[in-house]
Amino acid sequence: MAEPLKRLTFIGQLGAPGRYDPALFADEPGGDDETVWFEATLRRAGVRESVRYEGRRVCHGAPLPPIDGPDAPEVVVVGGSFHSVHDDLPWQRALTDWLRAQRARGDAGPIVLGICGGHQIMARALGAPVAKVTGGTVAATLPVDLTAAGAAHPLFRDLPRPPRFHFGNEEHVVQPPEGATILATRAEMPAVALDFGGGWYSVQFHPEAEAAPFARSWGRDALHYANNYVEVPETARLIRNFLDLERRPR
After folding, report:
1. Residue 186: which residues within 8 A CB-CB, separation 6 or more?
2. Where's the Glutamine amidotransferase domain (predicted)?
3. Under 8 Å between Cβ of 185 and 144
4. CA dihedral angle for residue 250, residue 156, residue 182, residue 212, rounded to 10 degrees
5. Which of 49, 51, 63, 50 is closest to 12 using CA atoms?
6. pTM, entire model
7. Which of 231, 211, 235, 210 is nearest to 160 (CA)?
C-alpha cells in the first residue's frame, strides 16, 4: 500500500487588500493569489503529486490551520509579504502565536519553511531582531554565500555554486535566534538562510518565484529594479529538497 500523502499548507501573507495593486499580477496564473503561484512551483519542482496541498491567504481573512488533529498540516510553507513584520497587524499576531504554538509541540509539530517575510516572522517569533537593510532596498537576482554548514546542508543539494535567487526586501534578520544555524549570507544581510533545528528552516530569498512578477512588482518603484532580475529556474530545487528533508534534531 502506498504511503499517504503529506498534508502541505501554504500560508499566504502577500498583502491585505489595499497594500498593493493587484493589477501588477494580472498576467500570473491565479492573478495575485500567491497560493496558486506556490502550487505552480510544486509542479515545476516535480512534487505536486506527492502532497495534499492547500493554500490559506491569512492576510485576506482565511483562518490558520489547526494546531493539531487529523486535519493539521505535516508540512507548512510561510510565504513572503509586502507588509513589514513590524506592522503588527491582527493576522500577523495570530500567525506569530500559531508558529510559537507549533514550535512548542516539538517533534509533534509540522516541518516548516519560511520565505522572505515568512523567514522574518519565524525568526522574530523566536526573539530575533528584524531591521532595515543597511544601504536600502535589495531587489535583484543575486548569489548567496553558503557557510560551511550551508554547503553541506541538504536544503542546497544539487544547486549551483554559488546559488542565485530572487531577492525583494527592505528588511532582514539581523542575527539568528538562539540555537539557529546560519546556512547562507550576503555582505548586507548576515542571515539569509537558517536552520532553526527541529524541522524549521527559512530563507530571505525566493526559491519559489519566477523573475517576471518580481520585475513588475519592484519596477513600479524604479525601472532599474525591473532590469535586475533574470530567470533562475533551478531554484525550485530547494523546494523539492525541503520536502525531502528528514526532521533534524534541535
Report:
1. 142, 144, 145, 192
2. 73-218
3. yes
4. -120
5. 63
6. 0.95
7. 235
> pLDDT tens digits, residue range 155-213?
999 999 999 999 999 999 999 999 999 999 999 999 999 999 999 999 999 999 999 99
CA gap 44, 38 in Å, rounded? 10
Position 247 pLDDT exceeds 60: no
**What residues have CB less than 8 Å from 207, skipping those under 6 apart?**
115, 165, 235, 236, 237, 238, 239
Give Rg (Cα) of the chain.
17
The secondary structure of the chain in percent helix, strand, coil, rounded to multiples of 5, reads: 35, 25, 40
Hunting for cell 502506498 — which residue is that? 2
Structurally, at CATH architecture level, domain 6-244 sits in 3-Layer(aba) Sandwich (3.40)
207 with 216: CB under 8 angstroms?
no
Q: φ and ψ at 139, to 5 degrees?
A: -140, 95
User: Phi/psi at 57 (nearest 5 deg)?
Assistant: -85, 85
Contact assessment for residue 204 and residue 119, using Cβ atoms and an 8 Å cutoff: yes
Contact 116, 14 (CB under 8 A): no
**How do the domains of the chain map onto residue ranges?**
6-244
